[in-house]
C-alpha cells in the first residue's frame, strides 16, 4: 500500500506546486487584478487543502518505506524532506494566505509584490528539491537507471 500511496502523493504534491507556480507567473504577466485575485483564492482553496495532506502523506510513507534501507539515495531524500516541509510551512503557506487577503482586498502594493517574489523563489526551491527526490525515488524503485560516470 505504501508503495502505491507514496508516488501518488508525491506526484500530486509536485504537480500542485508546479501548477501554483505556472498559474501565478502566467496571471501576473497576462491577467487582470481580478484574475490574480481568483488564482490566489483557488491556490488557497482547494489548492492548499490538496497540497498540505499530499506533502504529509509523501513524507510519512517515504519514511516508512525507508525503514532498514541505508542507500545514499534514501539519505539524500531524508535530508531534503525537512527543507521541503519547512519551506512550505514557513514561507509558502503564510505567503499564500497573505497574497490571497491582499488580492481579495485589491491591495496590489509593494508588500504584495515583495511577498509574491519570495513565494515564487520558495516555490522554485521546493520544485527543484521535489524533482530531485522524484528522480532518486525512481532510481530506488528501479524504474530509472543510474547514469554511469564517464
Ligand atoms: C517530495 C518529496 C518526495 C518525492 C517527490 C518522492 C518521489 C518518489 C517517487 C516518484 C518514487 C518512485 C516510486 C515508484 O517508482 O513506484 C519514490 C520512491 C521512494 N521514496 Fe520517495 N519521494 C519523496 C520523499 C521521500 C522521502 C522523504 C523518503 C524517505 C526518506 C522517501 C523514500 C522513498 C523510498 C525508500 C522509495 C523507494 C520505494 C521502493 O522501494 O519502491 N521519499 N519516491
In short:
By secondary structure, the protein is an all-alpha fold.
Folded structure, characterized:
With 150 residues, the protein is mainly alpha-helical. It has a single domain, classed as Four Helix Bundle (Hemerythrin (Met), subunit A) (Up-down Bundle). 84% of the residues lie in helices and 0% in strands. The protein is built from four helices and no strands. Helix 3 runs antiparallel to helix 4. The model has no long low-confidence stretch (mean pLDDT 96). The structure holds protoporphyrin IX containing FE.
Write the layout of secondary structure elements.
Layout (H helix, E strand, L loop, with lengths): L1 H29 L2 H33 L6 H33 L5 H31 L10
Helix pairs in contact: 1-2, 1-4, 2-3, 3-4
Protoporphyrin IX containing FE binds next to helix 1, helix 2, helix 3 and helix 4.
| Series of H and E elements | HHHH
Strand content: under 5%
Quantity of strands, as a count: 0
Structural class: mainly alpha
Spatial gap, N to C terminus: 38 Å
Main sheet summary: none
CATH C-level: Mainly Alpha
How many domains is the backbone divided into? Answer: 1
What is bound: which ligands? protoporphyrin IX containing FE
Indicate the overall shape.
Answer: elongated
